[in-house]
Amino acid sequence: MWNGEQLDLDAYLTRVGFRPDPDADAITTLRGLHRAHLRSIPFENADIGLGVPIALDVPALQDKLVRRRRGGYCYEQNLLFAAVLERFGYQVTALAARVLLGRGGDIPRTHALLRVDRKWLADVGFGGGGLLTPLPLLQDAFEQQGDWSFRLDLDGAVWTLSSYQSGDWVPLYDFTEDPRTRADFEILNYYLSTHPSSAFVGRLLVQRTDENARYALTGDQLTVATPADGPRKRVLTPDELATALRDDFGLELPTATG
Prior knowledge:
Layout: H1 9-16, H2 26-40, E1 43-44, H3 46-50, H4 58-67, H5 74-87, E2 92-99, E3 111-116, E4 120-122, E5 135-136, E6 142-145, E7 148-155, E8 158-165, E9 168-175, H6 182-194, E10 205-209, E11 214-218, E12 221-225, E13 232-235, H7 238-247
Antiparallel strand pairs: 1-10, 2-3, 2-9, 3-4, 4-5, 6-7, 7-8, 8-9, 10-11, 11-12, 12-13
Helix pairs in contact: 4-5
């Protein structure tokens, strides 16, 4: 379903620096792939700012994220990862989430995420605030990942993923287990990458999380946050911005995007 046969798996594994252990069990390999992907391929929307169409087929994703060593946003990241997992023999179902982060009201389900082998939540495309490794898809699942803590709550058919930040549990997103297809994401992708009201249009967004901190660029503002402290923000000069993109996010973007 995710066209894993079109993937150059060796090139992907080189890109993320992951060497599979043939003796490892399925969850150890899944966790290793998830962390390696997040460590190597940042969340970014620079092509949207440049008006470059966002393609979601596997050859285009591999060309951009692997060969050209770029990043991408949730559809690009998780659809590439779905193809990778398919090649490893996992059963992958795509789901759609409603991003919360303190928002209320009528919010559409626009975030792509993955259910793996019907029992793991995987998501390499949430940007600066998401999981470092897959989380068991179980009521009240809790896990410490580096300095970050995550939990899953289930209310009826709706799951909510939350992260512990500055003394409070912050809901990140909620979702159901209704399967989504590439065609579903093509429609959402077109809207989010072109509509003037989209949060991804009109400003540069680059994000990365490691075990200790979250780094986010919004335009020329760099934000660094840890689980214990509130976010620390500063505005970067053009030279500092280029340095941060290269050193903090591993990116050489085709041109400056404001």
